[in-house]
Request: fold
Amino acid sequence: MHNTTFDVRTSGRDQMIDITPQVAEAIRDAGVVSGQVTVYIPHTTAGVTINENADPDVIHDMLAALDKAIPWRESFYQHAEGNSAAHVKSSMVGCSAIVPIVGGRMALGTWQSVFFCEFDGPRSRRVIVSVAD
Ligand code: ZN
Reply:
């Protein structure tokens, strides 16, 4: 098992950032040709998901849909920090993603990328990449 971390600096409250290059670099550094990679987000108001990298409107629409489903303000929220929506989005999206490694590369589909998901930015965030052979 090869574990590494890298940081992501977000610039908006809700944002999806393509971190595929950083994950690919971690796999290269680990020298694993056949195995799997786990991308893990050690935060309670952020997440990781895999989705389309071709049309940026997809990212816009996903963030907008999440925001509509989970509004920033709700009369029933009790969490004093005021970021309950970010916590809910984090758990909905999830804090880990697993991708098979085939031939030294992630077996992503043509249109897929790995996205770090910010739900309470801007902040400095950490991503843990665990490469297994
Ligand atoms: Zn909170």
